User: Fold Beta-glucuronidase C-terminal domain-containing protein from Orbilia oligospora.
Amino acid sequence: MLAILIHGDTKSYAQLGYAPVINISPTLPNAAAAPTIDRSFISYSLEHMAMPTFLNSPMLNNLMELWKSKTGGRPGLRIGGSGMDKTTYVPSLDQPIMWTANPSSQYLVGPSYFKLVREYFPSDTQITFGLNLVNSTDNWQNTVEFAVAADENIPQVDLFEIGNEPDLYVNGKQRPRGWTGKDYAEEWKSVANRVKKVLPNAQFQPAVFAGSLKDNFDLSSLVRAGINNYQFKIPTYSLHFYAQSACSGNQNLDRLVDHNILGAQLQRFDPELAAAEAGGARFTMAESNTVSCSGFVDVSDTFASALWLVDYSLAAASKKIERIYFHNGPTTPYSFFIPKGANGLESGIRPIFYGVYFLAEALALPEPGSTTNFMVKPIPLPGSPSDIAVYGLYSNRVQRPNLDVVGTTKVAYTTTVSKTMTMVSTDIFETVQSVSTKRIIKSIATSTKSITTTAVFIVPKETMFTKTATLPGTKLTTIENQLLDGSTMTETVEIAYPTVTEIVLPTITRSRTTSQRVYTSWVLSTIWTSQEITITKIVRRTTPLIYTTSSVYVAPTVVTSTQTTTNPQATNIGNFPSYDGVFLARAVILNLSPYNTSDEKVLNCRSCSAPSPARYGTVGPRKSTRVTVTGFQPGHRLKLVRLRGPGLNAKAGVNVSGIAFNEETAEVTYTPRPGSIYVEWDGTARFDILASEAVLLVDEKVL
Assistant:
């Protein structure tokens, strides 16, 4: 198994938690043992009214294309959000979209809107199109017309959503008090049936709840109410998730990267995942990000959001959440980027997108056109530390035949040896004798080695000595003065009168002394020997065979209590099977120990609305931890990719192994330069990781 051994300051669990060894299985028993990550896992959610701003810039398309170039899957697009319930289709409108304040805040959409969307996004983009549910005028006639127009004019439309976050309609005074999930189900079915009548092949993504899961706003209730694949074409159900909320005042940078808080938040969705599967569909987070209500400055626009996105995405994928649609606005704090022309802000890439690119590297295909899919498995750690997260990524491909595997049967011995096979056959039965040679431990010799060291020490010593000193002093004396009239005047005056005395003072003397220490070490030496094994088998044959003798080279598996590996100097580093299987290909390690910078140069970014306050910088140096990894295959080179920023609160200086972007087009201007480490023949590989940093290890021999 793969183990990660941590060296460093053990006083702080923040140096990768408090589990000194992290065990990751190097293989999975089969391809169904862990969820497969969808190649379009990271997707985008945009409002209808934001589309003209986003589509007036090449940035969105370039970033989506960058993801596809790595993973082989184009990100999906959800056009929805709170504005979809305020959108009205106007066939006579000569603008793509416009806002009107009468009779209430509404967005009017014209036919040219469809052309704008159709021509910007490539044909393989899967679009989920949001429709109004709030306005029921004429039995939702305009909603049906909008759906038909979108279907006819945007061939990329794949799914329809009807209504956004209906579990908040009562609080928003869009439905009367007492309106529940049962009422929503009836309204949804009414609209969906009308759409299905004119578009028989229409597919839907129902629910779209904010996540309160109260008053029958849950997937189990929807399935029971008839919103299921028996009545409609429903590939996916969806809910929304934000880690924190700007509407409730619940924003905190350190809590955003707390792995245990994230785990508890996602655990709430376990019943919904089960309900979606029971309804014959998959589960998505159709709207998600760091902080709801458009994000929060100094949280959503910082490097912390990039680390959170990596942890959240891999944790969600491990729960069989198929996709996450990250909500973006033209100027909102949680946006991946700010497109050119957005009011009040310059265009640029935000820190959170570097988390997206780091994931793209983690899920990158080993070669163009590869059929590889990656399965993700979170690694539970002793004590469940909140400041470390580890994920194993496994390839579903049959691996190359030259994998350097080792392990046990009780122990699988895989050293290549010479073998002679003699076959004896008769008309009916055949005797097969196999003679092979194995290497076993004959004895282990113990020797000692002593090393004597000599050290010279300077020893200080305090002594006392006597010294004669003159001490200042005064005395009184009487002076008589004869006056002119013959009288006498007596005057007492004080005069200086020093005295000589002896005083005792301390002094420091130093002497040299010599000390010797003897160190004794024990050395274990293994003495190997050879042993022949003869195995006889009787097998039935339908035709006689001729006596033959052949010499071959094989890698036999021998049951022995002695640990053996591909290299006599290696130690047994895990239960690697000697057959093709679902192998560990990559590992992601997140050190979520909080570190904040006070460097004002990186507390603001080109596209940010304001700098982070400098007063929250972490006191003291940023700690680094040496990590020893065992479990990757000996002799392999591991590509090492880092997601690094100056601190959680940084808004600039964030990168993934040096990648850089054009801030107006989002084109890559400097390709990343990953590092590399080698797995030694004893199965160990080592690297350093900073507080508030993520590391990706890629075994490029595992396809």
User: Anything to note?
Assistant: DSSP finds eleven helices and 33 strands in the chain. Residues 7-20, 401-430, 521-526, 539-579 have pLDDT under 50 and may be disordered. The CA atoms of residues 131 and 341 lie 27 Å apart. Residues 417-554 form one domain.
